[in-house]
Amino acid sequence: MDDSIFKLGFDRYQRFRLTQELIDSLALGGPLSILEVGAFDNAFQPFVAGHRHSLWPREVRPGEPIDFADNTFDVTLALDVLEHVPAEERGFFVSECARVASNAFIIGFPVSTSLAAEQFVLKLTGSAWLAQHQELGLPDKSEMEALFKKLGLSFTCHANGSLPSWTAMMLLMHGLRGEQREEVSDFFNRRFYALENREPAYRYIYVLQK
User: Fold this and answer.
1) Helix (H) and strand (E) counts for the chain?
2) How far is residue 195 from each of residues 14, 108, 161, 190, measured CA to CA in Å?
3) Terminal CA-to-CA distance of the chain, rounded, Å?
4) Residue 112 is inside which H or E element, if any?
5) Which residue, of 28, 99, 119, 187, is most buried by count of CB atoms within 10 Å of its CB?
6) Residue of 19, 61, 53, 55 whose CA lies nearest to 40
7) Which neighbouring-strand residues pair with 104?
8) What are the pLDDT digits (tens) for 176-203?
9) pTM of this prediction?
């Protein structure tokens, strides 16, 4: 992978890197066809170089089906998108992402146990992203796992992003711009990623299979 990926903001790097490791663990060979749902740029693509990576726009409209046939892609992804979908539409969103995947749907999202930390960071930074999390509600881990089972999806669950580290880094990164922000990201991502996938976790990443 290109060294430039280490300059990604720590929060994106963490979820992208673990997702890449989970795709590799599926041992499907390649090149794979991968659909990333809800992405607003191509930042994940370098993590899956050698595979065919496509995007479905970030602005997921409530109740809108994904315009592909069943099992079109080997793997589908939705990384930190679910918390931006209204709670009543999350079941449909998950079912659509799983429907177009022939092997696995990988979904990552911050959970309701991160609420107090998010509220604290929001109070100090005014983050528009976190404000929408509060408006729509963070997914509940147990409720989402019950939904996965109801949809007939088996799953494995993976902690991603230590909550104390996430809180501290969100406050630190808020005050940084440009090259300074990239330098801190590079330092943190290279040295601490391997230590960060632990409890208490800010988010969980699930590998769902039919």
Assistant:
1) 7, 6
2) 11, 18, 9, 11
3) 31
4) none
5) 99
6) 55
7) 75
8) 999 999 999 999 999 999 999 999 999 9
9) 0.96
Q: Across-strand partners of 160?
A: 203
Spatial distance between the Cα atoms of 33 and 50, rounded to a whole number of angstroms: 10
Side chain identity at residue 43, one-letter code:
A
Average pLDDT, the chain: 95
pLDDT for residue 5: 96
Which residue type does 13 have? Y
pLDDT tens digit string along 22-48? 999 999 988 999 999 999 899 999 999
d(CA 137, CA 140): 9
The two structure tokens encoding residue 123: 């109070």
For residues 55-67, one letter each, b for 16 or more C-beta atoms within 10 angstroms of the residue's C-beta and e for the rest, the string is bbeeebeeeeebe
For 172, the token pair is 């630190």
Question: 3-state class of 129 per DSSP?
Answer: helix
